[in-house]
Specification:
Elements lengths: L3 H7 L5 H19 L5 H4 L3 E3 L1 H11 L7 E5 L2 E5 L6 H4 L19
């Protein structure tokens, strides 16, 4: 666990209160710059970062990473799954309820 002193040293900030104010400013700036909408690169990717980090994640996943692609733009990389439609896989399960889905309990009170 990182203590307060380590954090203030890491960011070259003299006090924890100054760190709190600085961090709050970073968050507010990010929200103002990017907006509050969902960002697919963060919500739909397995990993996001520099090429080394994404490559390490891909390597650690081993065989489970088959079919996944690394996409790089302007020095930022994402490990993504190929885009496919789930509709073809799940349509029969989403159909209307039918009699064969009914189960009657044999309970007497």
């Amino acid at each position: 666990m990182i203590d307060h002193e380590s954090l203030t040293d890491l960011f070259n900030i003299s006090s924890i209160e100054e760190l709190r104010k600085t961090y709050r400013g970073w968050v507010e700036e990010s929200l103002g710059t990017w907006g509050r909408e969902r960002q697919p690169r963060w919500t739909e990717s397995i990993a996001v970062g520099d090429e080394g980090y994404v490559g390490d994640v891909k390597g650690n996943l081993g065989i489970r990473v088959m079919g996944r692609e690394v996409i790089g733009v302007n020095g930022s990389y994402e490990l993504r799954e190929p885009e496919t439609s789930y509709e073809a896989l799940f349509r029969p399960e989403k159909g209307d309820l039918r009699d064969e889905n009914t189960f009657y309990w044999d309970v007497t009170f």
